[in-house]
Write a structure and sequence with these properties.
Layout (H helix, E strand, L loop, with lengths): L4 E7 L5 H16 L8 H4 L14 E5 L5 H11 L8 H25 L3 E5 L2 H11 L4 H11 L7 E6 L2 H19 L11 H17 L4 E5 L4 H23 L1
Parallel strand pairs: 1-3, 1-4, 2-3, 4-5
Helix pairs in contact: 1-9, 3-4, 4-6, 5-6, 5-8
């Protein structure tokens, strides 16, 4: 059983996960150093007691696909728009190959060491994109997760679901900027039709309804600040809960 805290962020590409992960990481670092901003003090005033087992712990940020040397190579294959003709089952198998390596190399060792792990995407993404978008269904995804990932579950999942239109516009604009600057092509999924992303969003909502204790849904076209505030509230509550179980 993990001793740390495992937090994942989920959502469509362009939902703002990258921005919110940076903000969450900065907040956790300030909190752990006892220097949380005044605007957040009302949320975490109880965190700095001697009973807070997460005060000062290390923070590990990672992403999927990627996050390991092997995973980064898999990511290039999966996201590059030149990877045409990938069968849905092949795509799902590559996602799990990346995930199994990330768990073995990064996530499980960090949790065993008592660290907080924040991961950009986990198995919910595979259930949403391959199970929903590619119409492979949830059963195959969850079976592979049990087999290849030891059924490791996040302690908290933050699901960001702004409108599909806003998400795709941001994702495509971002990918074009990245490609222009670095030559790196990560546009393969953004070339899908809107119906694909509606299936993905629908599956995400299904997951949230199925696991309300784990998944916190943050829905709608909210400001960056409003989303961050909701994330802080959710993480604060989970940190309190995790601390209480360790006392």
């Amino acid at each position: 059983m993990p001793h740390g805290l495992f937090i994942t962020l989920e959502g469509l590409d362009g939902s703002g996960k990258t921005t919110q992960i940076k903000r969450l990481a900065a907040w956790l670092k300030r909190r752990n150093s006892g220097a949380a901003g005044a605007s957040e003090s009302s949320l975490n005033c109880a965190h700095h007691s001697d009973s807070d087992n997460f005060a000062g712990v290390d923070l590990v940020l990672t992403r999927q696909p990627g996050g390991t040397p092997t995973g980064d190579r898999i990511r290039e294959l999966l996201l590059d728009s030149r990877s045409i003709g990938l069968a849905p089952m092949t795509e799902m198998a590559l996602m799990f190959a990346d995930r199994a390596q990330a768990i073995a190399e990064v996530i499980q060792p960090a949790l065993d060491a008592g660290k907080i792990v924040v991961c950009d995407r986990f198995t919910d993404s595979t259930e949403a994109y391959q199970g929903g978008g590619r119409q492979l269904g949830s059963e195959a995804v969850l079976a592979l997760h049990r087999l290849l990932c030891g059924n490791l579950q996040p302690d908290l999942t933050l699901l960001l679901l702004p409108s599909i239109e806003a998400s795709l516009e941001r994702a495509r604009r971002r990918n074009q900027t990245v490609e222009a600057r670095s030559g790196k092509d990560e546009n393969r999924f953004e070339q899908e039709q809107e119906a694909f992303f509606r299936r993905v969003a629908g599956k995400y909502l299904e997951i949230a309804a199925r696991e309300p204790e784990r998944v916190v849904l943050i829905e709608g076209d909210l400001s960056i600040g409003d989303v961050h505030q909701r994330i802080v509230e959710a993480v604060t509550a989970r940190l309190h809960s995790a601390t209480a179980t360790r006392i």
